Amino acid sequence: MTHDPARPLRRNALRLTLAAAAAAATLLAMAPVQSQTQEPVQPIEAAVVTEPAKVELGKKLWFDPRLSRSGFISCNSCHNLSMGGSDNLKTSIGDKWQKGPINSPTVLNSSLNVAQFWDGRAKDLQEQAGGPIANPGEMAFSHDLAVDMLRSIPQYVTEFKQVFGHDRLSIEEVTAAIAAFEETLVTPNAPFDQWLKGDKTAINAQELRGYELFKGSGCVACHNGPNLGGTSFQKMGLVEPYKTDNPAEGRSAVTGNDAERFNFKVPTLRNVELTYPYFHDGAADTLAQAVDTMGRIQLGREFSAQENADVVAFLKTLTGDQPQMALPILPPSSDKTVRPQPFD
Amino acid sequence: MTHDPARPLRRNALRLTLAAAAAAATLLAMAPVQSQTQEPVQPIEAAVVTEPAKVELGKKLWFDPRLSRSGFISCNSCHNLSMGGSDNLKTSIGDKWQKGPINSPTVLNSSLNVAQFWDGRAKDLQEQAGGPIANPGEMAFSHDLAVDMLRSIPQYVTEFKQVFGHDRLSIEEVTAAIAAFEETLVTPNAPFDQWLKGDKTAINAQELRGYELFKGSGCVACHNGPNLGGTSFQKMGLVEPYKTDNPAEGRSAVTGNDAERFNFKVPTLRNVELTYPYFHDGAADTLAQAVDTMGRIQLGREFSAQENADVVAFLKTLTGDQPQMALPILPPSSDKTVRPQPFD
């Protein structure tokens, strides 16, 4: 599903009217004569679920606030699947309303990233999943307490045994299940993917102009591949220094290499219409602001109002089908489950 | 769906084996010879949705944290539909991690209550729905700001117009849509309802003993009707004073009548297995504690361990089919939408 209610109407119109047929011909004429493989962006495919029970268990854990000290914050609190897999806040709200240090990146299509977190300190989704649970500024629990909680709930014990085939319910199984769920959170079928796959009516003339500018002005040097990003670390403020109050140092905090200071993982542009505000500090509220800033500090270029609008129009074609899922019903705590004390 | 994975197995066993057939005969013999209409508890029925678009809009609003000042707290935060329509905390967490004054009652089957809130200060669900949005200790927004937010989002504007047939998007439409959604949140088909409807194998001997004790010892004097509660206000601590640090005064705070001090709306016992902790102050962590306390302070009776276990077993037969729903995808904010500042 896209978030532009006008889109299906427009596409039907293109197909059903003479005027539209002419417009479609124009679009075809404007489309670069090259196959999909020549584009620096590739479409993404729907997830293939091979372990449905594991995914279903991971989904329950994803939505379970009992994985936090307070019993109030779940994975979904900051990576809200109703809101593009993010929280749409500059930085997230953690345990006791602590101000998070960095903008919450979307979980959507995160399996396509080369590493996890803005600084890439987790090599994969499973390693990432354990982070927020035990981070004192986020869910503020511990792996041991999270596991104790799950072991106290008979239905969880049964499900872990069914999925993993053994009785060891450890943080490894918890994070493996969460990661398996996250791997299903891809958003195929964006209008731009339809265009990449050959439907030249899937994006309009302005959107195509935006894509050509996106390629021609250098955005695509970092925002490439199926996720339009997520494949490399790049310096924020390449041409012009980026001014921010946010103290995050980026990649150098992981590698110890000062040359990588202020290098962050290039964020995906998939569903970027939904994942505002933008940048690691969440400083850009709108796509127009983000495009303007990126042009200036990364490319040394000031986009005109028309150019900016064209790129923004292109970026909105990257909204894919959002994951459709039933809200999980969580197994209730047992009498043995330790009750959270959020105000202690 | 019930939350007892053993239940379907047990029922199949009853039907499929000779031993089970004998047990079923025993159950039938024990069942009181009376029709459903003679019971002080009535089954609840599935919701009939007459305005699906209104319900769907209400569902989006229910899950939308932009109805709070912080952009972080939605209706579902404290009435979590993955967790029996409550937050399973003694008292809820409000804006800036404020400690809520009272235990969050379940939204499930709340349309069957005579009034809303523990003190009944809202006459119906629509009146209730406006409360938390503007309560400085809960979502801490204002009705005007909530409406401004919604008006800034084209997809919401379109949906409100489709549902209500006019362009006035006011708090009345917001709360009407939320109430329409809440009215669908009923949980039919609990094992006890199946028993009430004539399936005498739907509850076992212990559960039936618990129900007989529930009736015979006076619990049912307050916990009656289809919701096993929600029909009257009663004094907490009728026989023996209830000790609590919670300052809530109950009904007298609404009526000004000091004789109603400490009178609270009798909570529903539907899905009570899922809605721990119990009482207006959330002081009872388990059903066993709650039954024990109720026996002593309301009935002047100390239940034996066996009696307590029987009543608890009966109470667990009140878990009905939880509302099944797709997680909504929320329309994104527009460039005009004011961004929340949770840390200001």
Automatic annotation (TrEMBL), chains A, B:
Domain Cytochrome c: 53-161, 205-319
Gene Ontology molecular-function annotations: peroxidase activity
Location relative to the cell: Periplasm
Domain of life: Bacteria
Signal peptide from the UniProt entry: 1-31
Transmembrane segments: none
Pfam families registered for this protein in UniProt: CCP_MauG, Cytochrom_C
Entry annotated with the keyword Heme: yes
InterPro entries, A to Z: Cyt_c-like_dom, Cyt_c-like_dom_sf, Cytochrome_c_Peroxidase/MauG, Di-haem_cyt_c_peroxidsae, MauG/Cytc_peroxidase, TAT_signal
Keyword Iron: yes
Swiss-Prot/TrEMBL keywords: Heme, Iron, Metal-binding, Oxidoreductase, Periplasm, Peroxidase, Signal
PANTHER family documented for this protein: CYTOCHROME C PEROXIDASE-RELATED (PTHR30600:SF7)
Protein name, as recorded: Cytochrome-c peroxidase
Organism for this UniProt entry: Comamonas faecalis
Lineage, uppermost ranks: Bacteria, Pseudomonadati, Pseudomonadota, Betaproteobacteria, Burkholderiales
